[in-house]
Amino acid sequence: MSRLSLPRWTTTVLLCLTCTLGTYGAFTALASGATTTSTTYYACLKSGTLSDVSTTSHSCSTGYTPAIWNATGPKGATGPTGPPGPSGSPLDLANVATLNWSGWLGVNNFSGGSYRFDGVGGIAFDGRDLWVTNAAGNSVSELNASNGSWMRTLSGGSYGFNDPEAIAFDGKALWVVNHGIAYGTGSVTEFNTNGSWIRTLSGGSYGFNLPDSIAFGGGDMWVTNQFGFGAASSTGSVTEFTTTGRWVRTLSSSSYGFNGPDDIAFDGTHLWVTNPGSGYVTELRASNGSWVRTVSSHESAPTAIAFDGTHLWAVDNADDSVSELNVSDGGWVQTLSGGSYGFNGPTGIAFDGTNMWVTNYGSGSVLDIGNSVTEFNASNGSWVQTVSANSYKFSDPEGIAFDGTHLWVTNDHTNSVTDFPAA
Hints:
By secondary structure, this protein is mostly beta strands. The chain has 2 domains: about 10-70, no CATH class; about 105-420, 7 Propeller (Methylamine Dehydrogenase, Chain H), CATH 2.130.10. The protein contains 3 helices and 31 strands. The chain has helices at about 10-20, 25-30, 95-100; strands at about 40-45, 50-55, 65-70, 110, 120-125, 130-135, 140-145, 150-155, 165-170, 175-180, 185-190, 195-200, 210-215, 220-225, 235-240, 245-250, 265, 270-275, 280-285, 290-295, 300-305, 310-315, 320-325, 330-335, 345-350, 355-360, 370-375, 385, 395-400, 405-410, 415-420. The longest helix is centred in the N-terminal third of the chain and has 13 residues, at about 10-20. The protein is elongated, with a radius of gyration of 36 Å.
C-alpha cells in the first residue's frame, strides 16, 4: 500500500471518517466544500484505512470505496473592516447627463481672463496648439491642445490684424485673413508657431477685397475675395501666393463662375470654392489656377466646404442643409437636411478621419442662439448624433477644428471655446 504525507487538517478529517462513517458521498461532499483549488488526491477507503493514495485518478478493488479530496484548509474568519475612503466630489447633474464625470470625457469650455476672446470665429490646429481669431479684438489667441490653457494672445504692432476671420496652417507657419471693413480693403498676416510675426501682405497685385477664407494647397496659399476688381468686381476673385509671400496670380475672370466666393478646400490636387451668390461650387487646378468646372451644390447658398478624402461636403447656412459632391467629377450625391440632423444655421464643418462635424450657429437672432453640433458618417451621410447638452456650453458655435482626438469649437455669442472628444 502506497502512502503520502498529508496536511494536518486532512488527517483530522480522516480520523473523523474512521469514527463516524465510511461513505464516499460524505467524503466527497466535504471535499467539494473547499474554497480554493489545490492538489487533488485519490485513494481507496476500507474499514477506516486509506490505501493507494495518489495524485493520479485510479480505480479501487472490490470492497474499497474511492475517496477524492483537495489539500486545501478550511476558510479562515473574515478580517476586520477597513477605514472608510475619502468623500467624493459633489455630484454635477450636467455631467451626469453626458456621463462626463469630473471632465472624464474631456468636455471643457474656456473663456475670460487671459484668453482675451473677442468676436471668436476661425480656428486652426498647428500640430501642437490651437489658434483662434478674434475679429472684434483684432487679435489671435493660442491655446494648448493638451489642456486648453492659454499660451499667448497676438495683437497690435506689425501683425496688422484688421477684422481677422479665417486662419490656416501650411505645415510651418500660420496665415490669418484680415477681412477688413470696407470695399477694397483686406490683407493676410503670416506668423510663426511661436507667435513671432513674419509678414503682412496687402495692396498691389494681391487684389485682396474683403477676403473671406484661406487654404494651403499645391504648395501655395489661396484666398477667396468676396469682391474682385475691374469688370469682374461684383463676382469676386481668388488670390494665389507662395509661402514666401510672393504673389502668383489673382483669378477673377467670369469663366470661373465666382459669385461672392466664400470658403475654399483642397482635395490633394484641386481646389473647390463655394459661391453663395449663385449656389454653385467652382473647381480649380492647384497646379496653375485654371478652371476645371463649376457645379451645382443643389443648395441656394453654399458657404463652408470640407474634404473627407473621397467626397466634398458643402454647408448651406440658409437652407439648413449639407450637400455631398463627388471629388472625381463634382457630381451631386445627396443633400442632408431635416429630421435628426438638427441643422440650424450650419456654419463650420470639419472631418475627424471618420465622421463629419457641423456647427449650428442658429439664425443669428438673440431669440435663436445656436447650441448644437451635428455629427454624421462621412461614408454614407447617416446621422450619428447631435450634441447639445448644457455641459458643452455651445452658444452660436461657429468655427470648428480637429486635433487628432478632440474637436474644438468657437462660440461667438459667449466668446468662448469648447473642447470635447471626437469618440
